[in-house]
Structures are given as structure tokens and as C-alpha cells.
Amino acid sequence: MGNVTYLKFFDVGSMDKVNDLHKRGWKIKPAGETKDGDAICAVYINEGDEREIHTLHCPECLDVAIEVYHLDWDKLTCPNCRTDVNVEDWITEDEMNDVLKRLKKELSYSQKHPRNSVNEFFLEGEDDPA
Ligand SMILES: [Zn+2]
Q1: pLDDT digits (tens, 9 = 90+) for 91-125
Q2: 62 C-alpha to ligand 1 centroid (Å)
Q3: Residue ranges near ligand 1 (ion) with Cβ within 5 Å
Q4: Is the pLDDT reported for residue 71 higher than 80?
Q5: For residues 93, 95, 98 and 100, what is the CA-based torsion angle, rounded to 10 degrees?
Q6: How far is it, in rounded angstroms, from Cα 8 to Cα 24?
């Protein structure tokens, strides 16, 4: 452990990164400006103080994402549809990426192989889909 402090500098072009770090517990203070007069800020944190953020998607309305600092709860109400969702039913960012990847793969497969789709096979009643 000890007193290790992490320090990073950002200019105004990187405010997204600064905000993200700030949400994780990093502190911000002004640190002068660039030659062009853009503000620079110093972002710093002591080792061990950083908070984990979990991004969760509501299973009812997938594009609603919430950020929580821990998963030590049973139920959380979706701010959009007001459903009480159990902790294990929320969809994590990783699971969401998997779903999107799978959808993309299926989409590009059906675009490359339009004649082999199952629906078409049944619709046309072919015996041999070769
Ligand atoms: Zn919802």
C-alpha cells in the first residue's frame, strides 16, 4: 500500500476522460494552460482510492444504462421503465457487447448466405439445401 499518488494531465480536448476519471474518485485541479491558452487540469488519486464502476443495462429497455459503484444489493429500479430488476438480471457491459457481436455476426452471415437461411428452406420446401 503506502502513499503512491497517480497523476495525469489533460487539456480541454480530453474532458470526457477527465469526467470518467472523476466519477471513479479522481480529484481534479487546474494546472495552468497550454501555449494556445487552453486550460490544463491535473487529475490525481491515491493508490487504492479508485472506485470500480459497473455499467448495467436494463433487460426491459436495453439502451438504458446505469452506473453503480458496487453490486451489493438485491434489486434496483430502472429509472426508465420503473421495473424492479434483480441484481443478476441486469445486463453487464460485457454481456451487452457479446450480444451485439453475435447479432453482427448473424447479420453478416445472412447477408453472405441469403439462400441458406432456414426460413427460405422451409418456405421453398427444398429437399436438399445444397
Ligand atoms: Zn427499464
Answers
A1: 998 999 998 899 999 988 888 876 655 555 555 55
A2: 7
A3: 58, 60-61, 78, 80-81
A4: yes
A5: -60
A6: 14
Ligand 1 centroid distance, CA of 80 (Å): 5
Query: Which among 80, 104, 75, 109 has a CA at the least distance from the CA of 90?
Result: 75
* Whether 67 and 31 share a structural domain: no
Alpha-carbon separation of residue 75 from 24, 92, 112, 128, 130 (angstroms): 23, 15, 43, 51, 50
Specify the number of domains making up the chain: 2
Domain range for 22 is 5-46
The whole-number pLDDT of residue 3 equals: 78
The model's pLDDT over 8-28, given as tens digits with 9 standing for 90+, comes to 999 988 999 999 999 999 999
- C-alpha cell belonging to residue 37: 491558452
Cα of 98 to ligand 1 centre, how many Å? Answer: 20
The answer to whether position 90 is within a domain reads yes
